[in-house]
Write a structure and sequence with these properties.
The structure is a single chain. The protein is mostly beta strands. It is built from one helix and 16 strands. The strands form five sheets. Strands 3-4-5-6 form a four-stranded antiparallel sheet, with helices on one face. Strands 7-8-9-10 form a four-stranded antiparallel sheet, with no helix packed on it. A four-stranded antiparallel sheet has the order 11-12-13-14, with no helix packed on it. Strand 1 and strand 2 form a beta hairpin. The longest helix is centred in the N-terminal third of the chain and has 10 residues.
């Protein structure tokens, strides 16, 4: 329910016809009215559990759910899902984390199958290799966090521990582990954000 409410509030900036009035008393201008539409499963959202929402420069809203990556254009949804017969589909339908970087690329962190990059021109996904499968020791490949630093590097935190930084769309250039914690660093090695991976 909270996911749908947050999605509805985020959608309110680009949605057309009014349906639910929300009033607030202004100090100088008097009463201000804002209108919001509730967008949920009945309107085409693939699943009610939304874990992340981002908006690109075109105006699309992207929502990660347990049953696909949903793109909302203000009128309806297009849902991207894993297709076992299509190697350019999502690595898995259960998506968790989203990031639009400074180059306007959409990064998708999946629940257990790693990281995907959306190819906007072809509307396909590129699977980004982050861990050497021989060295993970069965580590969970689910993405727990996506961040971009001021230099354009994308930092990927994993649920099973570990941190990778991507300088571009090629494979990871550096990784770090900190005792089950994911740590994001600023240039002077100051911790920006830390989270437990368990």
């Amino acid at each position: 329910m909270l996911g749908r409410l947050l999605f509805a509030l985020c959608c309110s900036t680009i949605i057309g016809p009014p349906s639910i009035p929300l009033q607030a008393q202004g100090r100088v201008t008097g009463t201000v009215q804002r209108w919001y539409d509730l967008i949920g499963i009945d309107q085409g959202l693939s699943q009610g559990m939304v874990s992340a929402i981002v908006q690109d420069t075109v105006g699309f809203l992207w929502a990660s759910t347990k049953d696909g990556l949903d793109r909302y254009d203000g009128y309806g949804f297009r849902v991207f899902r894993h297709d076992p017969d299509d190697p350019t589909s999502l690595a898995e339908s259960h998506t968790e984390e989203l990031l639009i970087d400074a180059q306007q690329r959409l990064w998708v962190g999946t629940y257990s199958r790693g990281l995907d990059l959306f190819d906007q021109a072809r509307e396909k996904f590129i699977h980004i290799k982050t861990f050497d499968a021989r060295k993970t020791g069965g580590r969970d490949n689910g993405v727990s966090r996506l961040e971009e630093d001021p230099f354009g590097n994308v930092w990927v935190g994993f649920k099973g521990g570990g941190l990778h930084v991507l300088s571009d769309t090629r494979s990871a250039s550096r990784s770090a582990e900190a005792g089950g914690h994911t740590v994001f660093l600023r240039p002077a090695n100051q911790v920006v954000r830390g989270c437990t991976s368990r």
